[in-house]
Give the backbone structure.
Amino acid sequence: MTKQRVYEVAKMLDISNKDLMEILSELKIEHKNHMSAIEEGDINYLIEYLIQEKEKEYLRSYNFKRDEKRRQDKNTFE
């Protein structure tokens, strides 16, 4: 398995080193600093996690917009 440094992964994902290290800590992926090497399996796990978080964020946004539209429609008919 190949390894990549935290700063390289952060650059690839277009996020800051600090944000990535916070996410790694949340996922309990071992690292010490931006120069720490991360296993390929951990990188894949990280990417899957980020994809799921983006999907959740999109759904929350969609639901908010839908609910807001319903409120506006309801106010229009009253």
